[in-house]
TrEMBL record, chain A:
Residues 28-352 form the Leucine-binding protein domain. The keyword Signal applies. GO terms for biological process: amino acid transport. It comes from Bradyrhizobium betae. It holds the Pfam family Peripla_BP_6. The keyword Signal applies. This is Leucine-binding protein domain-containing protein. Keywords: Amino-acid transport, Signal, Transport. Belongs to the leucine-binding protein family.
From TrEMBL, chain B:
Belongs to the binding-protein-dependent transport system permease family. LivHM subfamily. The chain crosses the membrane at residues 6-30, 65-84, 96-115, 142-159, 188-213, 225-248, 260-276. GO terms for cellular component: plasma membrane. It is found in: Cell membrane. The keyword Mitochondrion does not apply. GO terms for biological process: amino acid transport. It comes from Bradyrhizobium betae. It is a multi-pass membrane protein. InterPro entries: ABC_transp_permease, BCAA_transport_permease. Keywords: Amino-acid transport, Cell membrane, Membrane, Transmembrane, Transmembrane helix, Transport. This is Branched-chain amino acid ABC transporter permease. GO terms for molecular function: transmembrane transporter activity.
TrEMBL record, chain C:
The chain crosses the membrane at residues 7-27, 33-53, 58-79, 85-108, 166-185, 214-234, 254-278, 290-313. It is a multi-pass membrane protein. CDD domains: TM_PBP1_LivM_like (cd06581). Pfam families: BPD_transp_2. It is found in: Cell membrane. One of its GO terms (cellular component) is plasma membrane. Keywords: Cell membrane, Membrane, Transmembrane, Transmembrane helix. This is Branched-chain amino acid ABC transporter permease. It comes from Bradyrhizobium betae. The keyword ATP-binding does not apply. PANTHER family: HIGH-AFFINITY BRANCHED-CHAIN AMINO ACID TRANSPORT SYSTEM PERMEASE (PTHR30482), HIGH-AFFINITY BRANCHED-CHAIN AMINO ACID TRANSPORT SYSTEM PERMEASE PROTEIN LIVM (PTHR30482:SF20). The keyword Transmembrane applies. One of its GO terms (molecular function) is branched-chain amino acid transmembrane transporter activity.
Amino acid sequence: MSKFVLRAQALAVTTTLLLAGGACLADTIKVGAVYPLTGPVAEDGATVLKGAKLAVKLFNDAGEFKGDKIELLVEDGACIPAQSVAAAEKLVSSSKVVALAGAFCSSSTGATMDVALRYKVPMVSGVSTAPNLTERGNPYLFRIQATSQMLADAFAPKMMELAGGKKIAFLVVNDDWGRSIAQYYKTSLERSGAQPVSTQIFDANETDLFSYITNIKRAEPDAIMMAANTQNAVTVTEQLRQMNIKSRLFAEGSFTAKSYYDVVGKKGDGINGLMPYVSTYDSPMSKKFVEMYKAAYGELPNNNAAAGFEELTIITNAIKTSGKIDPQSIRDAIATSTTPGPAGDIKFNEKGQGYGFTVFLTRNENAAPMIEGTAQIAKP
Amino acid sequence: MDLIPQYIFNGLVVGSSYALIAVGLTAIFGLMEIANFAHGQFYMLGAFFAYTLTRLLGLDFWTGLVGSVMGVMIVGVVLERTLFRILRGASLSSSVLATIALSIFLENLALNVWGPRPQKIPTPFETGSIAFAGVFTTPERLLMLAVTVVIVILLHVGLRHTQTGKAIRATFQQREAAALVGIDIDRLYTLTFAIGAGVAGLAGVLLGTIFVVQPAMGGIATLKAFIVVTLGGISSFAGGIAGGLLLGLAESFGAIISPAYKDAVGFILVMLVLLYKPDGLFGKRS
Amino acid sequence: MKSRVSLPSWLALSVTALILLVLPRLIGTDYYLHIAIISLVFVILATSLDILVGYSGLLSLCHTAFFAFGAYAAALLFLHFQMSLWLTMFAGGVFAASIAWLLGLLVLSVRGHRFIITTVIFAEIGRLIAYNWTDLTQGQIGLSGIRPPVFDLPGLPRIDFSSREAYYYLALVVTTTCVTIIWRITHSPIGWRMLALRENEALAEASGVDTRRIATTAFVSSAFFAGLAGAVYAHYTGFVSPDLFYFTYTTTMLIMVFLGGKGTIIGPVMGAVLFTILPEALRVTANYRLMTFSAILLVLVVFAPEGLVGLFARIRRRFAGQGSVQDA
C-alpha cells in the first residue's frame, strides 16, 4: 500500500501545475480547487480555472508574503457530487491544502462543503447559486455569487419595464440552478406585476428544444427568462430564432461567454443577460483584470473567469491579511475580509453569503455584452 | 390546436434522426448478433469529422459531408476487421461489455482531441427560418427529412434487388445456411458495418448543422437507438425506421403533457411493447 | 462443485482478515480510508451483481438503480423519520428488492438483448424520477444531511460512527456478512439452479427447474444487497443525488465483476477493490483517465474474459503443470 501511496504522490507532484517561478527555496502554500474538468460543464470549469490561476500568479509574482508561493492543486469533480467529494478528500487529507475553491455545480458544492467542515478548512465558491448552501450553518463555506433570488430581486422591476407586457415564460435547464431560477424569478417578477404563463424545463443533454419552444409559443409570452450554460445556451438561442420567437429574452448563464459568441455570432444580439460580471464593466479593478486576463489567455474574461479569479483572490487576500497559513486563521480572515474583485468589493455576512459587489443587466450587441443597468447586492 | 402540425413536424425531424442511427444498429445486430453499445459513437464521429473538415480545414459543406461519411465508414471497417472479428464468437455479455468499453474510449478520445466545447458545423444554406402553413422549420431540418427518405429508399432497393442485399437478408434469417450456400460472410459483415456506421455518421453530420456537436452526443444517441430498435423489433429494418419516427412523435407530443418527463414517454412505450408484443411492433418471433 | 477449503486458502483468508482488521492503522490519511470504505460498498455491489450476471447469466444493466433506490430510501427515512442505519439498511434493501420484483414481472419474460436493453431503460426511468420529483428528492441537488448511526445500547460502550475509522469497521462487518450470505446462496441448491439457468435454460426447465422463479429469486436478492449497500453509502457520504442512477456506475460494477472473474464471488471482491483504487490512482491523468480506464477494460475483456481469477488459475496451472482444474 505504501508503495502505491508513494507512486500516486509522485505522479501528483509531477503533474501538478507549478505556478511559482522559482519555487525551490521559498515555502509553498498548497491551495486546492475542485472544478469540473470533464463532463457537460467541462468548458465552463476550464474557464473558472483560468481565472483562478491568474489570481495565484498575481500573488506569487508580487512575492509580498515572505516570498512564499502558492501551489494550486486542481482536481476534477466533473460536477458529480461523489467525485467532487473524493477530490476534496484527497486535496485536504492527502495533499494537506489549507483552503479549497470550487466546486462549480451547486450539488457538488453542497456535498463538498461537508468535507470542508469535517476538516475545518475554508471553502470559497464563486459559481454555485443554490440559495440553501449558505443556510446550512456551515461556517467554513463562503459563497461569493449572488443567488438567483438576489439577482431577480435586484432587476425584476427593470425586467418588467423592458418586457413591455405581463406574460412571462421560463425556459430553463433541468438542474438545481435552472429550477431555482424558474422558482425565484417567478416570485420576484410576480411581485412586479408579471403573470407566468409557461415553464419549460429541458435536460442538459438535450439537443432538440423545438417541442419546448412550441409549448412556449403557444403561451404567447411577452418575455422569456432562460437559464443555460454554454452547451445549451447555443441551442436555446438558435432554436428560438428558428421558431421565429419575437418575445424579449432574458438569461442567466453563458449567454455572454466567448465560446457562446464564437458559435452563435450575432444571433445572440438583443438578449438581456443577468450577470455577476461582464468584461465591459469599466471600474478600475475590472479594467485591470480584463487586461491581465487578455495578456495571459488572449481572450476576454467572462463571469466564470471572474468567479475563479475571485475565489482565489479571496483566499490569497486572507493569507496576506492574517499573515498565517493555517486553515482556521484563513477562515477567520475571510469571514471579516473585504476583498476587491473585478465586480467590486466582496464582503461576507455571518452565514458566509457574499455581498457588496455589483451585478449587471446586459444586452448583447454585435456579439458583445453591453451594460444596460447595474445594481449593488446589499447585505442579506 | 393550431400548433399541432408544428408538433408533428418536430417529431418527424427528430424521429428521422433516430431512424438513421437505429438502421445501422439493427443491421449490425441482425447480421452479427452483437448489440453495439458504441454505435452512437459513429454518429458522434461523423459530426466531429465534418466539423474538422469544414470549420477547421475550410472545405465546403458537401465535400465535408462526403469526406466524413467515408471517414466513419473506414473507422467502422477497421473496427469490424479487428475488435468485432475477435468478438464474433464471444459470449453475449463479453461483447456487450467490450462495446461499452469501446464507447467510453471513443467518447473520451473525442473529448481529448476536440475538447468539451460544443461546436457547430457551418450550414450550406443562407436562409435561417422557413415558414409554411404555420409550421416553422429550417432548411437543415428539411434536408434531414429528405436524406432519411432517400436512405430508406436506397436501403429498400438495395436489400430487395441487389445480389448483396439478398445475401444480407438470407444471412439475417439463417446464418449457418447462408454460409453453407457459399455466401462470403466476412465480406458481408464488413459491408454491413461500413454502411451502418456510414449512415449513423451521416446523421451526425446533418444534425451537427441543426444542433451542437459535442463528445457526449454519442451515448445519448445509443440509448435512443436501443429504444427505437426495441420498439420496432430488434432485427427489422422497417421496424427501425418506424420505431424511430414513432419515438420522435411520441416525445414531441409527450412534451405537451409534461416537458420534464418527455423522455419517459419513449421508455413507457418500450415497456408496454415488451409486455404485449415482446418482439417489437414489427419483429418476427425468433 | 466442492466447497472444500484447502490449507493454503485458510492461510490466505486469515492473512487477509488480519490485514483488513489493522488496515486503518496501516494507512495514514483519511483519504485512503475513504477509498477503503467506498471499496467495501462496491464489494457488496459487485458480489450481488455477480448473483445475476455470473451465476444466473442475466446481464443486468440497472444494478446501480437498485443501489440508488436503496440510498434514496435510506436518506428519506432518515430525514423524515430519523431512522438510523440499523433500520434503513434493511428498509433500503427491501425497497430495492420490491422494485426488482415488480420490474421482474415485466422484464424476466424476455432474455438476451431485450432484457439488457430494458434494464438500461429502467435505470434511466429511475434517474428521471429522481431528477424531476423535486418535492420528494430535491431534484439534481439531491438530499443531504444523512448522518452515520450511533451505537447506543444500555450496558454496552457507546460508539459514534461518524469517525472514518469507526465507519470503516462498520462497513467491514456489513460487507463481510453480505458476502458470506451471497456465497452461501450461490453455493446452495438455489445457486445450482441458477447455474442451470445460465448454462441451458431449456434443459433446466426440462429437468424440473422453475426457471422463471429462479430468475426472480436471483433478481430480487441481488437488488436487496444493492439497496442495502445504498443505505451504507448514503449514511457514509451524507448525501444522495440522481447521479447514482448514471450508467457509469453500472459500467463500473460490471467491470468489477467481469475483470475479477464472474461467477466466482472472490473475483468480484478483488475486482471491486482494484477498480475503486485504480480510478482514484488514475485521477492524476485527468482527461485521459476514462480513456485509459476503458482501454484497460477493452483489452481485458477481449484477451482475459475469465477475469483475474481465470488468469491466476491459468498461471497456477502452468506452474503446477496440470490441466485438470476447471473453474466454474
